[in-house]
Amino acid sequence: MKLLRFGKIDEEKPGIELENGKRIDVSGFTEDFNEKFFESGGIQKLENWLKDNAADCPKVSQDTRLGSPFSRPSKLICIGLNYAKHAEETGAEAPKEPVLFFKATSAIVGPNDNLIIPKNSKKTDWEVELGVVIGKKTSYCSEEDALDHVAGYVLHNDYSEREFQIERGGQWVKGKSCDTFAPLGPWLVTKDEINDPNNLNLWLKLNGETKQSSNTSDFVFNVSEVVSYISQFMTLLPGDVISTGTPAGVGMGLKPQRYLKEGDVVELGIDGLGSSKQHVKNYKG
Fold first, then answer.
1. What are the residue boundaries of the Fumarylacetoacetase-like C-terminal domain, all occurrences included (predicted)?
2. In the chain, what are the domains?
3. Where would I find the H helices in the chain?
């Protein structure tokens, strides 16, 4: 299934995109796609409910705004330097263990919402990433069992302000967490629709020019490894997101470097997970 949320900001309702591309409102089944929904086996229950009720669900227009395909999770955990070629372009060695950092969940927006360049930013950058959505409470899980704890996958643009992240000391989080820096979606695609998350093409274009084009087979640490690894240090809750890192081609790695400015358009996508587009705007206080 392809889970989505639609409507005005902070007023989103849950929906589904059907195989024919049409969208329906499933708020008759659940009030939201949230931690409670996932932990109660909501995906399977919704699938069963749709067999008898899909035809009666209200239709959703294709021009209706999409929000993040699930409500704000307890955690958005990111993996740094998780593509071999990206580590190389930054001048770093491939890590021996996954590099973990948090991104504030207040940065989450819909897939096609505007990117707002933050106040005093000079180096706002792009990063197409595969997001892994946790389906049930996970603690100390093995790599062999890791995918049993996954609900599905989502497209994520891990926007980053490089000066805030790298040049101003401290941890990376302040360069990762600005408002609008985590567009998710268009959908949460349930794991049964993705044969191998470690073999997906992903791409990003800036103003129509391809900047990133790779495959998750270039992971340093694959999906099972990162889910298991993170669960050794913290409990993952249903709806939590693990963003698995970005491939080569970010603005910081270009020669000369290239950062986003007002008027730019960023488009990105992953096989089976759809695509998104963000128009770049300056912060206006």
1. 75-280
2. 2-60 (no CATH), 71-282 (3.90.850.10)
3. 35-39, 42-53, 84-89, 162, 173-176, 223-231
